[in-house]
Amino acid sequence: MVFSLPWAWPQLGHRTGENFQQFETYGFLGLIYSILLSIICWAIFWRIGRHAKGDLYRREAMAVVGLSWVVATILGAMPYILSGSSNKLAVRIFDSYKLAPQIYGDPVSPLTKDQFALVHSLVSAGAKGLSPQKLEEQFDAKVQKWNPGENPKPDFRVVFDELSEQPHWQGVLIRPGQEPDSPLDRSEHFRIRGVPMNIADAIFESQSGFSTTGATVIANLEDPISLPHCVLFWRSSTHFLGGLGIIVLFVVILGQGSAGKALMRNEIPGPSKEGSHSRMQHTAWMFAGLYCGLNLILTCLLWLLGMNFFDAVCHAFGTLATGGFSTYNASLGHFYQVDPVSGAWIEYVVIVFMVLAGSNFTLLYFLMIGQAYRLVEDIEWRYYMGIIIGVTICVVCFGMIYDDFITDPNTSTFTEAQLALRNGLFQVVSIITTTGFGTHDFDKWNSFGRGVLFLLMFVGGCAGSTGGGVKVIRHYLFHKILFLQLEKSYHPSVVRPLRLGGRPVDDPDLQTNILIYFSLILVLFVFGWLAIVTLEPDATWGTSEEHIEHKLIDSATAVAATLNNVGPGLGIIGATQNYANFSWWTKLLFTALMMIGRLEIFAVLVLLMPRFWRSR
User: Fold this and answer.
1) Which spans are transmembrane here (predicted)?
2) CA atoms of 385 and 363, how far apart (whole Å)
3) CB proximity list for 465: less than 8 A, separation 6 or greater
4) 338: burial class by Cβ within 10 Å (0-12, 13-18, 19+)?
5) DSSP secondary-structure letter at 615?
6) With contact defined as beta carbons under 8 Å apart, do 359 and 381 qualify?
7) How many of the other CB atoms lie within 10 Å of CB of 371?
8) What are the angstrom distances between the C-alpha of 572 and each of 426, 427, 519?
9) Are strands 194-196 and 86-89 parallel, antiparallel or unpaired?
10) CA separation (Å) from 529 to 434, 533, 579?
11) What DSSP state is assigned to residue 212?
């Protein structure tokens, strides 16, 4: 939080192409208060545990990590609440004036065409609103489009006043001069009131950052009043802190005996890893140094490619942490919209670093010291790259058949192939590594492409990477176990060991653990999905049957995206959407799923067992 404070000064510069010259008082104070709360919390815990002695064992280590993650999530949410950050507008409208709009999530009476033209203009403008001249221009254009030939021509001020007097709309619409303390860039604008983030919103955003999920409840990232730059930097910093894995960092801090081994096993699944606690601490320090070094290299590359320092740091944090928090509503696609040449190079560079972030950091260390052959020899990395290449080929081919990547019918085949390869490869890598960056609206792809991306959410990165998800090694071992069990069904007397890379696996419990893990993933996914489709109001999807029909698929992808720490899904939480419109209890459910996905299922679920907390 301390490193986020300087970004409240406009002299540092902020997002690319932005000229915001106002000190962020509320954001700065929100961070200061959050830092004080963190210090108080540390003092309380230090006083409680100052006389503690002895080593940490497996049970204590799991309890410390799980509870510490909860505390970190709550403290990480404080800057959003104490700075008064907003996550969306109070009004939500849909495709037609015939569909009832929502105010603070509740449906209200449908609007007339004139009212819809007015509200549509204000919603499209965001929290900043529109000056009287701009609003009049947009209002007149929409009236002519939706109600041509209307005579006499309606006055937008009369429509605004009439709507403001209706009970549900009172206090929602703001006219120029109504709030003299408003920022100078909007005090003379017509606008819609923003909705401050509540506790559920802030905890969701905090957990999404620490768990490197990248899901967000913030609808407009580009408004420095709704979300100050210093708070936006803190948001990206939570990715940096969670990127390498709080568990591995705890090995450095708490790496004592069996505790260190337990924590390392939870973060790096697969065959058991034995070693002294000093060696594990050395490994964790090596991972941390490599992780910071890659962040520094990527920051410099993005800076050279046209990003300013603020954007470069934030996107480096989101890439190496496989988190996906961006500083723009269009995610990384923003830079391609501004400059297609530098934007394309930025995407290719980020693809490379996402692949690296999804790889085992032990292999990256060998690559760094000149032993690149270790990558090719590693069966999990070959499996990982095989999935990326194979799925990309399928997505690109089907995308070109269905014209998913072009908007101009005159585009040449070569240009279309370039667009398809870049966008297809980027989204495949972004999903499998659980990064969640977006450069193209994959929610508009053909059914095969969207279905493949949905399945990729359950794959994840390699063991020992910053990626979330099930992990590639588990999928590889799972299919090996299935083949062994199939062979055993017709050759029951044959005893064949489970092999990994040609070597037998010594851990006798590994097969059982893998099968139990997949079973728990399935159970959590099914029950989470049923809970949402049963209890989440249909109003979340809008008021038309067309929207509500998507509820089953959208809910499934939302659970998959949060449980596997991916971030974006399909439909209502697609590449261009967010989680802001879900009810508060659903956001807390997603928060729990993100924590389970990041900390590994066993490490979290055991905390819910009463016997876990009893004395030995």
Assistant:
1) 26-49, 61-82, 240-263, 284-305, 345-369, 381-402, 452-473, 514-535, 588-608
2) 14
3) 322, 357, 358, 359, 360, 361, 433
4) middle
5) -
6) yes
7) 12
8) 21, 18, 28
9) antiparallel
10) 20, 6, 15
11) T
> How far apart are alpha carbons 182 and 17 in whole angstroms?
24
Q: Is residue 299 within a helix (H) or strand (E), and if so which, with residue range?
A: helix 277-304
Alpha helices (runs of H) in 358-471, residue ranges in sequence order: 361-368, 373-377, 379-401, 413-432, 447-456
Spatial separation of the C-alpha atoms in residues 232 and 80, rounded to whole Å: 9
- The amino acid occupying position 372 is A
DSSP 130: B
CATH 1.10.10 domain position(s) in the chain = 91-192
Q: Are strands 86-89 and 173-174 parallel, antiparallel or unpaired?
A: unpaired
Lowest mean pLDDT among 197-201, 451-455, 560-564, 605-609: 605-609
Q: What is the C-alpha to C-alpha distance for residues 407 and 212, in angstroms, rounded to an integer?
A: 33
What separation, in Å, do the N-terminal and C-terminal C-alpha atoms of the chain show? Answer: 39
Distances from the Cα of 68 to the Cα of 35, 210, 224, angstroms = 17, 12, 31
Q: Which CATH architecture has domain 91-192?
A: Orthogonal Bundle (1.10)
Alpha-carbon gap, residue 196 to 517, rounded angstroms: 39
Per the CB < 8 A criterion, the answer to whether 70 and 244 are in contact is no
Query: Which residues, other chains included, contact 569 with Cβ-Cβ below 8 Å and sequence gap of 6+?
Result: 454, 457, 554, 557, 558, 560, 561
pLDDT 10s digits, 155-192 = 899 999 999 999 999 989 999 988 877 777 788 999 99
Residue with tokens 């929409």: 142
By CB neighbour count within 10 A (0-12 exposed, 13-18 middle, 19+ buried), where does 495 fall? exposed
For residue 150, the SS3 value is coil
Q: 72-108 b/e with 16+ CB inside 10 Å = b?
A: bbbbbbbbbbbbbbbbbbbbbbbeebebbbbbebebb
What are the pLDDT digits (tens) for 221-271? Answer: 998 889 999 999 999 999 999 887 654 654 444 444 443 444 445 444 444
- Strand pairing category for 194-196 and 191-192: unpaired
205-229 residues labelled b (16+ CB within 10 A) or e (exposed): bbbbbbbbbbbbbbbbbbbbbbbbb
- pLDDT tens readout for residues 336-368: 999 999 999 999 999 999 999 999 888 888 888
Q: Which residues pair with 500 in a beta bridge?
A: 503
Upstream peptide bond of 152 is cis (omega within 30 degrees of 0): yes
The Cα 73–Cα 59 span in angstroms is: 21
Contact 207, 146 (CB under 8 A): no
C-alpha distances in angstroms, 152 versus 148, 158, 229? 11, 13, 46
pLDDT at 254: 43
Say yes or no to pLDDT of 273 above 50. Answer: no
Cα atoms in the Cβ-side hemisphere of radius 13 Å centred on 245: 28
Where does residue 500 rank: exposed (0-12), middle (13-18), buried (19+ CB within 10 A)?
middle
As given in the structure block, the two tokens for residue 225 are 């009043």
Give the integer Cα–Cα distance in Å for 373 and 376. 5
User: Mean per-residue pLDDT for 585-600?
Assistant: 91
CA distances from 173 to 85, 106, 164, 261 (A): 19, 16, 6, 57
- What is the reported pLDDT for 258? 42
